[in-house]
Every structure is written in C-alpha cells, then in structure tokens.
Amino acid sequence: MKLTILHVADIKLDPFSGMGRIAYFWKKAFEEAGHEFIHLGKEEVKTNHPSQFPKQAYKLFRLKYAAKKPDVILAHEPVSGIFIGKNIPVALFSHGIEQREWNLRNKVYKQFHDPVSFKSKILFPVWRLVNCNKGLKKANLLLLSNKEDQTYAIQKYNRKCNDIVIFRNGVKEDFLANCITKEKTGECVIGFAATWIKRKGTGLITKVAKKLADQDINVKWLLFGTVFPKEDILKEFPTELHSKIDIVSTFNEYEEKSLYEKCDIFILPSFFEGQSLALLQGMASGLCCITSDNCAQLDLIQHRINGLLFKTGDFEDLSDQIELAINNPKFRNKLGENARESVIDRKWNVVSKEVVRQIEQIA
How far apart are CA 363 and CA 356, in angstroms? Predict the structure, then answer.
C-alpha cells in the first residue's frame, strides 16, 4: 500500500550535511519503497527565527496538505508537539532529546559551558522544549538515537519500550570501500570533525593539546568542519602550537573522505550527542576513535575493543587515552580495524530501509 509521509523538520534535505543527510536518505528509501515523501523544511517554511518554525509549518500543513491527510507525520522533536492530536499517527524522531541536553548543560556540565542568560532560561523552554516534551509524551512512535535517550524517555515520559525504536545512522559507501590499514610512522595526526562549540568538548581539546606539548609528545591536529574561521580558533591555543594545528573550516563532499584519511586518531569529546555521523565515518575509515562515555558513543564503542572511551569532561583521562593510542601503533590499528568492521553493515540504503519498515507499521 502506498503511503503519504509528511516529514517536518527545520532543515534542508542535503546529502552532505548532518541532519540533512539523514533526512535525504530517509526520503530516498521511502520513495524506493513506493511511498510519497513530502518535506516541510527550511526552504518550504520561511521564518526569521527557529521559534517561529512549528507554527508556520503547521499553518502550511493546514493550507496545503490537511485535506489530503498524510498517513503518517514524521516530525523532528522540536516541531512534533504541534502535530499531536490531529487524528494522524505521529512518529517523532530525535537526534538527542533536547530536555535531557538542557538539563545536563545547566547542571551536570555547567562548568564546561558558557553561562545561560536569564532571558534564555525563561524563553528557551517555552518556545523550544514545550513542543519537544508534548511530542515525547504523546507521539505514536519515538525514533531515538541512543539508549541513554531511550532510558530517559521511559523514566521521564512514562513511555513503553514498544513505543521506542533506536534507529541507526549510516555511512557513505565510499568510506567503506577499499579502506587500507595505516602503517604510518612518525607523528600522529589527531582528527576532530565538528562545529567548534563547547558542547563538542573544544575546551578539552585545547587543554589536551597543551598537555601533550608540555610532555614533548609529537602530534599534529586536524580540525575540520569547524565552521568558525581558523584565526578565531587558533586564539584558543598557545601560539607555539599553531604550527601543529591544521584547520579546515568548511569542505565539500569530495574532500570529506580525504580529510579522514589524513588522520591516525579520531576524537569526539562531546558532552552530548545524538548518534554522531562524524564518529561513524571515523570508524568506517578504520581510525582509532576516542570518545566521551555518553550517548550513542556508549552504544557504538566498546572500550579497548573497537575504540577507547574516556570519562566525560575529564581532560586528563582523554589525554591518557590519546597517549595510549599514540604509544601503541599496532593496538591503535587493531582498534581501527575493529571499528570499521563494527559499522560495515551501516550503508545508508540499509539503515534507511529499517526506518521505513517502522513507519509502515504505525500507518
């Protein structure tokens, strides 16, 4: 039976971005299964601020699609609440439960983040989290990205296990093709791929870089996809380290794989994630991946088997794990080989079909 799926998220479908990449491959899988996939996103819903998106998206839905009545609304967490109670099944997808991240940022990991302004403390829960929480409580299906979020949804929103699916993100096929184990000697290149923001653990990176340099451990740093300009990021590092740091603020789809190939170690020191595409690509590239022990990193990485975990927020532990990888090249390579093997079944066409099957069950 052909279904009409209404996908609502404040993003652009784009095979070369983060959330946009996930949605792009979902769309492709739904259409290959014979379904209609309608996307309401950044290009379709014009707003001046993200707070306006849910109401404007619902208004456009009422204007153009309510009469047709889609079979399922596949809604990103922050827009999900406004579509509840419309007599259409709602599947909420989350790339990290936002209420959980907000609580962690303001309590457990408060010391690692910039202070939240009084205005944001008041307004953000109103314009963002109210919709999230309504959807998480009442959506027919929750598509979550890691087991920590699953546990949180069960405990906070009284959801049943049968209402929750942990979906898998994918890896581009060229990352899985012809991966050659590194036999490099000399200085290690440590890679980091993310926007340069504190949630991603950038403060830990600057501390670790200084500590390794003080110990005369010879490494280079490759920071890519940082968005912010090179000169702004370098200000956070001691001047004497600047020659050891390569920064690629943006890159195109043809450069992505080659950036990973330049690395020997990949780090993800984030305080909060959904299910990191950057980590999956590091694993698919056969790199020794060192990650913080939270969110989907715990689902993907088994310590000392297919990567290394460090205690979230502990730069000394992160430094120790990096030193372990640097000083043991054979062990490092073995971890990379195991990492690649553990994601070999995550081609986008495989994992996206899994999502299609889950949505078909609630239509």
Answer: 11
Which candidate, 308, 345, 1, 358, places its Cα nearest to that of 173? 345
Q: Which CATH number fits domain 173-342: 3.40.50.2000, 3.20.20.80, 3.90.1310.10, 3.40.50.1260?
A: 3.40.50.2000
Give, in order, the Cα–Cα distances in Å from 239 to each of 80, 210, 233, 235, 270. Answer: 47, 10, 11, 8, 25
The 8-class DSSP code of residue 230 comes to H
Q: What are the structure tokens assigned to 4, written together?
A: 């009409």
Contact by Cβ (8 Å): 270, 199 = yes
- The mean pLDDT of the chain is 95
**What would the two tokens of residue 277 be?**
């595409």
Radius of gyration of the chain (CA): 21
CA–CA distances in Å: residue 231 to residues 113, 200, 237: 21, 19, 10
C-beta atoms surrounding 315 within 10 Å: 20
Topology of domain 4-170+348-362 in CATH is Rossmann fold (3.40.50)
What is the structure's pLDDT at 68?
83
Q: For the segment 85-130, what is each residue's pLDDT rounded down to a tens digit?
A: 999 999 999 999 999 999 999 999 999 998 999 999 999 999 999 9
CB-side exposure of 47: number of CA atoms within 13 Å?
A: 19
Sign, CA dihedral 228-246-257-211, equals: negative
- pTM (predicted TM-score): 0.95
Q: Is the pLDDT of residue 331 over 90?
A: yes
The 10s digit of each residue's pLDDT in 33-58 is 999 999 999 999 999 999 999 999 99
For the chain, the residue count is 363
Distances from the Cα of 310 to the Cα of 252, 293, 318, 323, 328, angstroms: 31, 6, 5, 12, 17
164 confidence band (pLDDT: 50, 70, 90): very high
